[in-house]
Specification:
It contains 15 helices and no strands. With about 260 residues, the chain is an all-alpha fold. The protein folds into three domains: about 35 residues; about 80 residues, no CATH class; about 150 residues, Leucine-rich Repeat Variant (Alpha Horseshoe), CATH 1.25.10. Helix 2 crosses helix 5 and helix 12 runs antiparallel to helix 13.
């Protein structure tokens, strides 16, 4: 009896050892499969992954945040970030993901593209496709604000009429206050002039981006805080309702005790 049990144990152990290499080979093969293929096939594979991680509840809930769901699968931001990490930097794949037109695929495209290689033409092309604040802000924060042409596009887009192109100018400026660690204050002073010029635009998505860019500029350092406060005060005194709201709302944060402590520290 004892010999029979011992034989079974040895047999199970041998079976596990034999199976282990096969499992490792399967994982390695899967990794090769994911990296293989044209950018279009890899984009479709990524889209399939997003669909597997989607839900109707997530897609339906997008409406609460003003995001259109007719071109969305219903994946969460956490899933998009996880997929982007899994894919890594891949410029060709980013272009293919963008061309799908799917909301989540375009979000991931911004996360996997290489900002150093982003051209001015690409920025204009993608910007024209912006149709909601989510994709606009994510592309600006995750990609465009690290691109070589970022500052030029702030100026260029701030004068455009299209709602999301104009929003992109100030979302980009907002991102630059955080990610461009070496920019001189003079660039942000120029940004404040653009903010003041655009503050009378009463369209919701433009007005909010202008406000956030103003507040973000004033958080960068003490000198820019003083300049942003001066701009906000002028706007708060404006007869234009949109400009007045932008100025008053920004002043509450930029002159708060918490902001003073932060800048002093």
């Amino acid at each position: 009896m004892k010999k029979a049990v011992a034989k079974k144990t040895i047999a199970k152990s041998a079976a596990k050892k034999a199976a282990a290499p096969r499992k490792r080979a399967t994982k390695a093969t899967q990794g090769k499969d994911e990296a293989a293929g044209t950018p279009d096939t890899r984009a479709q594979s990524a889209l399939t992954w997003l669909k597997r991680h989607s839900s109707k509840a997530t897609r339906d809930g997008m409406a609460r945040y003003g995001l259109p769901s007719d071109r969305a699968v219903g994946a969460t931001m956490a899933d998009m970030l996880a997929l982007a990490k899994r894919l890594g930097r891949d410029r060709a794949l980013a272009a293919a993901l963008w061309d799908t037109g799917v909301y989540e695929a375009r979000m991931v495209a911004a996360m996997v593209d290489d900002p150093a290689q982003v051209t001015a033409a690409q920025m204009d092309r993608w910007c024209k496709d912006f149709d909601n604040w989510g994709i606009c802000d994510t592309v600006c924060f995750k990609l465009f604000d690290r691109a070589p042409h970022a500052w030029a596009k702030v100026t260029q887009w701030s004068g455009k009429r299209d709602e999301f192109v104009k929003r992109a100018a100030f979302a980009l400026l907002w991102g630059l206050t955080v990610h461009d660690k070496h920019a001189e204050d003079a660039k942000f002073i120029d940004g404040l002039r653009l903010i003041e010029r655009a503050a009378d635009d009463d369209r919701n998505f433009v007005k909010k981006a202008v406000n956030m860019a103003l507040r973000a500029t004033g958080k960068r350092n003490r000198a820019l805080n003083a300049a942003a406060v001066a701009t906000a005060k002028r706007l708060a005194d404006s007869p234009n309702a949109a400009a007045k709201w932008v100025g008053k709302d920004a002043l509450r944060e930029l002159t708060s005790p918490a902001m003073t402590r932060r800048l002093t520290a």
